[in-house]
């Protein structure tokens, strides 16, 4: 009887070159999506690295490499949502005193108004708006990525946009999140 074992991950794996090529082509885009979800470049880098590690470990089991972008985006999204669930108790607390050291400003590609607007939303609403209006996914594709119904996507998008309208007032019209397919 011949025992078939699954190929092992690690340096020298048969799929290393293929994964490295995918990583080189898509890491920047995944990091940008992660940034829109969390609003912090360092955290976005961590989310992207964690997601790409998960993708690398799953690589030999993936049958449809033509659907990698959707799968990778879903892994980034689920990593973000799982991190938010785990770290609820670790969130920053507001105080009367300023922090000891100011954080250095990050080089940013995203409009500060958009970052501030997304920061007021909960993680699920933020995820829906990022996927729908920044990643330009359809309602169905967003529902698939989030693992929820299309009705949930529609209601979360409507609530998120209503919150942004209320908080931003006349600035809302300048955001690219008030359209969509």
Automatic annotation (TrEMBL):
One of its GO terms (molecular function) is sigma factor activity. Residues 114-164 form the RNA polymerase sigma factor 70 region 4 type domain. Residues 29-89 form the RNA polymerase sigma-70 region domain. This is RNA polymerase sigma-70 factor (Sigma-E family). The keyword Lipid metabolism does not apply. GO terms for biological process: DNA-templated transcription initiation. Belongs to the sigma-70 factor family. ECF subfamily. Coiled coil: none annotated. SUPFAM superfamilies: Sigma2 domain of RNA polymerase sigma factors, Sigma3 and sigma4 domains of RNA polymerase sigma factors. It holds the Pfam family Sigma70_r2. Gene3D superfamilies: 1.10.1740.10, Winged helix-like DNA-binding domain superfamily/Winged helix DNA-binding domain. Keywords: DNA-binding, Sigma factor, Transcription, Transcription regulation.
